[in-house]
Amino acid sequence: MKKMRFLVHLLLIIVVVAMSACSNTQSSGEEKKTLEVALWDKNVSPAVDKSIEAFKKQHPDIKVNVTYTPWEDYWTKLKTSIGGGKGPDVFWMNGPNFYQYTSSGFIKDLEPFIKNDSEYKKDKYFPAVVDLYTYQGKLFAAPYFIDSVGLYYNKKLFDDAGVPYPDENWTWDDIEKVGKKLSNKEKGIYGYSADIKTSQSVYYDLMHQAGGYIISEDKKKSGFDSPESKGAFHFIKKLIDEGISPSAKTVMETEGKQLFLSGKVAMIPAISVSAGEFKGVLGDKLGVAPLPKGKQKASIVHGIGWAMNAKTQNDKAAWDLIKALSGKEGEKVIAESGFSIPADKSISDIWLKSIPSLDLKVFLDAQEYGVPYPVSKNTAEWQDVETKEIQSAFLGQKPIDEALDTIAKKMNDILAKENSK
């Protein structure tokens, strides 16, 4: 009998506890949520972590998991997971993949959230990155930061060669002339790196500086076969042939950036995002100047946006997280970190002070003659052709002009299909 009373009493306790837990869940409004975040560059983690901590103070009931996937695997993993109906709630988006993800219905239109949010104003951000992430008149990724291209250089190598540092008056002739003085075959030092694997910071800029273009404004024609664009690639070949720049085979084995950081390259064109990383390795030996001009000045402008999974079950929380990352406070955090130029125009001056020893204004000034990163609906498809043909040409497997003509022909076919839909 006592045993029976004990069991009844125990059962009552369990029921009361269960009802209390249920009551607590209901009173809090909803069960604890988890937001999954995905991006590829760990160098931005201090800024991202700080913004997430601020978000969690406002949303203590929400857990946030951040996954960094190397660039080489990021897009394959992302597309597979989202295509399968899962994937992260919030993730980084770039220009080349934007049209594919929006047209496939993988990311959510942010306009309804913006319309109901008095704090978020699109006109606060640099127009180039807002336009980059606008599809059919609607914003699908919140601008986070922008980047442009400048000429980084190793002051010690310049001092050792007894030549003056680059400045705003430099042209392609200076790259060649000074590059020769800086190059030292015996020591394995190159004056300049024209790494043909890095399109944005190398040949895209040169194509525009030569008076050419990558894709026409109406997205209907390739510019790779224009005489001006071909001139840019022949300039690269000249630098390689004269020993001023590493060969394609060399940068296939050790990329230009690594050669620069190890003191084997004196000058390298690279995006603003590289400033913090380069400074961390080279310290006071690092300098930066505007890109030398050809027929004209040009610097490719790109930027990263925060996108929301179209199938997220927590869209309101995901929007609040995107705001914490790319709103005024989040933009201030990334500006102070020195990672890159914040997309919020009003915060850009803060970024200029993040690395006092570098003239970061070079990258802001580049916005004045900046060229938007080239994109179309199937950017990844024609860029795949572009990469294979250019590498083939510079590895000596075919003439450069033949490779560029092939790129243009295949790219025009891809663009024709895009425009016929």
Automatic annotation (TrEMBL):
GO cellular component: ATP-binding cassette (ABC) transporter complex, substrate-binding subunit-containing
Keywords, alphabetical: Signal, Transport
Secretion signal span: 1-20
Gene3D superfamilies hit by this protein: Periplasmic binding protein-like II
Disulfide bond as UniProt keyword: no
UniProt entry tagged with the keyword Signal: yes
Superkingdom per UniProt: Bacteria
GO biological process terms on file: maltodextrin transmembrane transport; maltose transport
Example GO molecular function: maltose binding
Family: Belongs to the bacterial solute-binding protein 1 family.
Name of the protein described by the UniProt record: Carbohydrate ABC transporter substrate-binding protein (CUT1 family)
Origin species: Neobacillus bataviensis
